[in-house]
């Protein structure tokens, strides 16, 4: 098989006084994600998509939140390690597409920096990595600003 597609999904609760890391950058906001790591839901969803495409389980199986070594870890490290696992299987990234669902903060101004940061970590062209953001029109846990979710799709090709 020359191509593999993976879908990733991640959710984190939002709380006052926590940091909000998305796509490898710190977003200024009064709420942030509650997590064992830095809680970067964008990177976590992308990692799950890459790992799932090659039946390498998920981010929690590879980097468990019960392990002290991953406490407060920068998710960019998890992204790089996940891609190393993909490359060990002989695959490379064709493209990545991620959608963030969050009522606040408005993320459009930060998307180019997120895309460039993650592309740099992965060593890929920024033109094959897309991040989008949407609100849920105040519906659901995202709309009530209780949490943030991300869905990501990755296409891998046998190198």
From TrEMBL:
Involved in the biosynthesis of isopentenyl diphosphate (IPP) and dimethylallyl diphosphate (DMAPP), two major building blocks of isoprenoid compounds. Catalyzes the conversion of 4-diphosphocytidyl-2-C-methyl-D-erythritol 2-phosphate (CDP-ME2P) to 2-C-methyl-D-erythritol 2,4-cyclodiphosphate (ME-CPP) with a corresponding release of cytidine 5-monophosphate (CMP). It catalyses: 4-CDP-2-C-methyl-D-erythritol 2-phosphate = 2-C-methyl-D-erythritol 2,4-cyclic diphosphate + CMP. The lineage of its organism: Bacteria, Pseudomonadati, Bacteroidota, Bacteroidia, Marinilabiliales. The keyword Metal-binding applies. Coiled coil: none annotated. A divalent metal cation binds at residues 10, 12, 44. Binds 1 divalent metal cation per subunit. Transmembrane segments: none annotated. Pathway: Isoprenoid biosynthesis; isopentenyl diphosphate biosynthesis via DXP pathway; isopentenyl diphosphate from 1-deoxy-D-xylulose 5-phosphate: step 4/6. GO terms for molecular function: 2-C-methyl-D-erythritol 2,4-cyclodiphosphate synthase activity; metal ion binding. It comes from Maribellus luteus. This is 2-C-methyl-D-erythritol 2,4-cyclodiphosphate synthase. Homotrimer. GO terms for biological process: isopentenyl diphosphate biosynthetic process, methylerythritol 4-phosphate pathway; terpenoid biosynthetic process. Its EC number is 4.6.1.12. 4-CDP-2-C-methyl-D-erythritol 2-phosphate binds at residues 10-12, 36-37, 58-60, 134-137, 141, 144. The record marks 36, 135 as: Transition state stabilizer. It is an enzyme of class 4 (lyase). Keywords: Isoprene biosynthesis, Lyase, Metal-binding. Residues 3-156 form the 2-C-methyl-D-erythritol 2,4-cyclodiphosphate synthase domain. Belongs to the IspF family. Its cofactor is a divalent metal cation.
């Amino acid at each position: 098989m020359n191509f593999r597609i993976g879908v990733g999904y991640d959710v984190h609760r939002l709380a006052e006084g926590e940091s909000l890391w998305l796509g490898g950058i710190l977003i200024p906001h009064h709420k942030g994600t509650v997590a064992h790591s830095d809680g970067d839901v964008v990177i976590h969803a992308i990692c799950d998509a890459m790992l799932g495409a090659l039946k390498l389980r998920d981010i929690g199986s590879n980097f468990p939140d019960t392990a002290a070594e991953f406490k407060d870890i920068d998710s960019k490290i998890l992204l790089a390690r996940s891609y190393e696992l993909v490359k060990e299987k002989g695959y490379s990234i064709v493209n990545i597409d991620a959608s963030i669902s969050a009522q606040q903060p408005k993320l459009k101004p930060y998307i180019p920096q997120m895309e460039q940061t993650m592309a740099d970590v992965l060593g890929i062209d920024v033109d094959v990595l897309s991040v989008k953001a949407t609100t849920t029109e105040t519906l659901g846990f995202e709309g009530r600003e209780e949490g943030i979710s991300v869905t990501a799709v990755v296409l891998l090709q046998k190198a």
